[in-house]
Amino acid sequence: MSAIQPATDVTDREIRNAVEGYTSEQALIVPADLSFDRWWERNSRCWVHHATARDLFREGWLSMARELGYLPGGA
Hints:
By secondary structure, this protein is mostly helical. 63% of the residues lie in helices and 0% in strands. The mean pLDDT is 75.
């Protein structure tokens, strides 16, 4: 094993963000938030508890964007 250690570890998430053209996680979250708003406008009539459902779906949407490194499908 080599004694030379890299100065920083590059994570898969950082690589995916770079490939997709995002400079940081924040640069990904802004368009993800906007795409969620568009998706919610199209689909919000399906749920009775709008405020609770919106918060839960938004958190899931942003979490998927963070994990995937790109906007979720249907955006």
